[in-house]
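Homework help board

Subject: predicted structure for assignment chain

Our instructor gave us this sequence and asked us to write out the predicted structure in token form, then describe one feature. I got the tokens but I'm not sure how to describe them. Can anyone check?
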Amino acid sequence: MKILQVVEEYVDALLELIYPSKAICYMCNNFIEKEGKYSLCLNCYSAIPFIPDHYCIKCGIPLRMIEDGPTCEECKGSHYYFHRAISVVKYEEDIKKLIYRFKYSGQTYLARLMGSMMAYKLNQECTAIDLILPVPLYKGKERERGFNQATLLCKYIAKETNIPINIDVLIRVKNTKVMHNLSKKERQENVNDAFKVVDNGVIMNKNILLVDDIFTTGATVNVCSRLLTTHGAKSVTVLTFARD
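My token output:
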């Protein structure tokens, strides 16, 4: 564990040297003249499509009018095993490009920006959390990509909130299909029996924060939440960077 901590500190220091957080904007890669929050230039920060205050208290999707709510129409007819889902931004064009850079273009330093925004959102919500878990990737897919994006996000969230993280208790045992072209029903069938809890004692009576990059239909996080609560978790709150 100590070795891992030293390695992470070295990686952070190297990132700061190559990509100084106070000098270069994460989104446009230009030098920062006028700084917004999160080490972004003012223009990029102003363009971020943050989730507004009026959103569904269950799945976190923005609601259209102040009269709508407190839950969206979809949630009124659905059953979720998580307590609630929280997201930071809408999954719009610039955010899609940002997440693509993070996951598929090797720009893993973006986890620092995204994780910091997620930690701030979590603190705003004043939600009691005992343990942070990433939604796991299948081992073969993680080896191919070189990392699990949810794990990287968790590390920065944990660093800023001082909440412990565990990356081993929830694992993926089935290599599921790519989800973006599947219907809601197909997504649900795709992730059934895809995950496993390997140590009940780690999550027993804990308020769990389950972390991923994007919430779309909620099929994946719902299956994970069902598994965690069945194995003794007190509650599961889902935190994602983007909400589709």
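Reply (TA_rk): Your tokens look well-formed. For the description, you could write something like this. The longest helix spans residues 2-18. That's the kind of observation they're looking for.
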